[in-house]
Amino acid sequence: MKLNKFVSIGIACAMLLGGAVSASAAPAAAQNPSHTAVKEAKAQHKQAKASQQAEQLAQLQKTASGLGIATEGKTAKELRAAIQEKHKALAEQKRADALAKRKAEAEKLGISTQGKTAQELAKEIQAKKQEQKASKQAKKQQPKTSKQTKKSS
């Protein structure tokens, strides 16, 4: 009798352990995808990355051609550098044009332009224009007051 109990307990333990081993093996297989699936995922990632790089290159080429930059045979990195260089040159040209315009306006108003920045000239021009405006308004007010004094006399 004792022997039957030990045998039945042993069989039950073996069945439990066997079930546990097979149950733990199933998720491991699911967690480790096949070699071909890994290769396919890598290929898809590589293709998506290449597609994204091609789109970026096309956008850079469009921007560069709009700025008058030759795009033939240039990489994305070279195009970015050329575009940045062109933007810097355009910004510098814009600053130079603004300074020249302010200098011309300052000279018309009789303001000295030597050694002054565009911002300094802009402030002086604005101050001079306000001064002239106030002067014109004072001249307009002066005849009105003189007419009133003539009528009252």
From TrEMBL:
Signal peptide stretch: 1-25
Comp. bias (Low complexity): 49-62
Keywords: Signal
Chain segments carrying region Disordered: 27-71, 97-153
UniProt entry tagged with the keyword Transcription: no
Compositionally biased spans, kind Basic residues: 136-153
Keyword Glycoprotein listed: no
Name of the protein in question: Serine protease
